[in-house]
Amino acid sequence: MNLQILTPKPTQDWGIFLEFWSNQYFYKLEDKYNSRIKQHSYSPEDLNELYIWKNGSPLSKLKQRSFEENILPHIDHINYKKNCIDYSFSEHINKFKKVSAVWNIFLLHLIKPDRYPIYDQHIHRAFAFITGSEDFRLVDEKIHSTRKLNFYSNLYFPFIEENLKQFDLKKVDEALFALGQFLKTKRYQLMFSNPRDVDMNGPLSSDLVTFNRLKTSICNYYF
């Protein structure tokens, strides 16, 4: 028999956190990203394949049209800025106003992958859980684009710059993505509290709020 349980082990060490949670990361089509992200310039096919990677599947007709109308015509600008030293968030957003928040931030990442991290609902959820900035259970794909952009520019990017700049950004993305997916299961609370005391549909328990505020959510789990 091979019976196992998961035991929480809090840590204040970002390196330990990133190592554990990035190892839980799984995302299909990963080669589409890894084989292109370090290139000095992108072809139209490269950009299309990278957005397929971000989407997790071939683009729908609507998304493909958005890509071809709002991103692809600017490929010269994208490749030029990719090789410039400076490229600001505000400059980018003003240039690509018609692009949705998640795709826009992803394009920013494609242009400067070593400076700007990826954004999605799972990363947002993990950040909220770690920092206590908001109720992470309310973070989902329905958040308005303006709020996503404000979150990224005012909270998430400065946080990365202050705390995680020395780490590989892809590893940071993978770790937070994996934690955010885990939190979405809604069963995570059973690992941190007595099951009899947990209301899966109610407000956060005081123990979990404390757990959140102290950043002891930066934890790993051992079998």
What would you say this structure looks like, in words?
The chain is mainly alpha-helical and 223 residues long. 52% of the residues lie in helices and 4% in strands. It contains 11 helices and 2 strands; from the N terminus they run E-H-H-H-H-H-H-H-H-H-H-H-E. It has helices at residues 14-22, 30-34, 44-55, 61-70, 75-82, 89-95, 101-111, 121-131, 145-163, 169-184, 206-213, and strands at residues 7-10, 219-222. Strands 1-2 form a two-stranded antiparallel ribbon. The longest helix has 19 residues, at 145-163.
Q: Which spans of ≥5 residues are poorly predicted at pLDDT below 50?
A: 194-218
Global structural class: mainly alpha
Question: How many structural domains does the protein architecture include?
Answer: 2
Report helical residue fraction.
Answer: 40-55%
Query: Cα-atom Rg, whole angstroms?
Result: 19 Å
Counted by DSSP, the helix tally is 11
Order of helices and strands: EHHHHHHHHHHHE
Fraction of residues in β-strands: under 5%
The total strand number stands at 2
Oligomer: single chain
**Largest sheet, strands/sense/barrel:** 2 strands, antiparallel
For the biggest β-sheet, the strand order reads 1-2
Mean pLDDT: 85
Short account of what is shown:
This protein is mainly alpha-helical and 223 residues long. The protein folds into 2 domains: 1-27 and 117-223; 39-112.
